[in-house]
Amino acid sequence: MHGASHGGSGPAHRVDNHLLIPLPADEVVGRQDVEYTCSLDEKKAGDDVRSLRMSLPADCFSVTYLSADIMALAVLPVDGRVMVFANVVAGDGAKYVGDRYSWWARGDQVTFAREDKEGVSFTCHVVPSVGKPADH
User: What is the pLDDT of residue 4?
Assistant: First the structure.
């Protein structure tokens, strides 16, 4: 029995407050930083949706998309901390899941939701860069 050992593969390493994920030497990593803003109709939104809205920054915020081979991640600020969301299979768009949340990007629109509470979600939109159209 191996107990807590994970065999020959080691854990990810934390260096200078960064999480490092070992990849093959020839792996190309893609990165895209996208600015978003979110809003909801306070009069129509229930308490759960209003509470969920408080999980993301009130103003514009940046989401970093990282990709390497078949791996895709979204890094975004949730509840005042940095959270890493992993890409999962979705019918359309790019859906990422982290903890109890999902971040589902379709074109210039994203749905942020609680996976453990049906119907608890709201929409965010890409903030176009000055002088160029949104590219996500």
Answer: 42
